[in-house]
Specification:
By secondary structure, this protein is of the alpha+beta class. Helix content is 19%, strand content 35%.
Length: 74
């Protein structure tokens, strides 16, 4: 039997890294997800007219441990 692990990619405003208003979101990611990669890119290349820097976070539904590595891609 094949069992797949749910993987999701989200495009988020870069403020989620450090904004105090995003504390609950970071806690949710930390407690229920394993972050696989954080991808940054030139925001004006993909979102014409948008002046907000964004990045994509790729994660899977899993309990993360202290030793897992996150891939940062630019």
């Amino acid at each position: 039997m094949y069992m797949s692990i749910p993987v999701i990619g989200l495009v988020l405003d870069n403020k989620w890294y450090h904004n105090s208003g995003s504390r609950a979101l970071r806690r949710l990611f930390r407690e229920r997800c394993r972050i696989l990669a954080v991808v940054t890119y030139p925001h004006d290349r993909f979102f014409d007219g948008v002046m907000i820097a964004t990045s994509m976070i790729v994660m899977e539904k899993a309990v993360s441990d202290e030793s897992h590595e996150v891939l940062f891609i630019r």
